[in-house]
Amino acid sequence: MTLPLYGATFGQAVSRFFRNYANFSGRASKSEYWWPVLASLVAIFVFSMATSAIAAAAVSDSNLASGVAALVTIVFILAIALPSISVSVRRLHDANLSGWMYLLACIPILNYVAWIVIGVLSTNPEGARFDRPRW
């Protein structure tokens, strides 16, 4: 699963996102990167809306209800953190860039730009050098 799947469907991309959750070698196509990003943003939006709705509905104990909903959101974000980093590194590899460039996303304000740049980088055939395991 180190080769990119160009033109991946939503289901294929999300499946590969979770199956390669800790795979930092190989490459990922644009569709393998953007479909999970979209799915994650939609899920976080839904969790946020649910948190607001639960807090508004639970007038008597809104702190507990919103705390539980917020906890679910935090668990989801932690669950997708490693796969998100992994697919970003593989996306950089597809553009023939070092995965260490992902650290640019850790710089405040620059990180928003870095996410978009990682996603729109063109595929570079020389990125195939990342397909071969080093050991």
Automatic annotation (TrEMBL):
InterPro entries: DUF805 (IPR008523). It comes from the Bacteria. Pfam families: DUF805 (PF05656). GO terms for cellular component: plasma membrane. The chain crosses the membrane at residues 33-58, 64-87, 99-121. Keywords: Membrane, Transmembrane, Transmembrane helix. PANTHER family: INNER MEMBRANE PROTEIN YHAH-RELATED, INNER MEMBRANE PROTEIN-RELATED-RELATED. This is DUF805 domain-containing protein. It comes from Mycobacteroides chelonae (Mycobacterium chelonae).
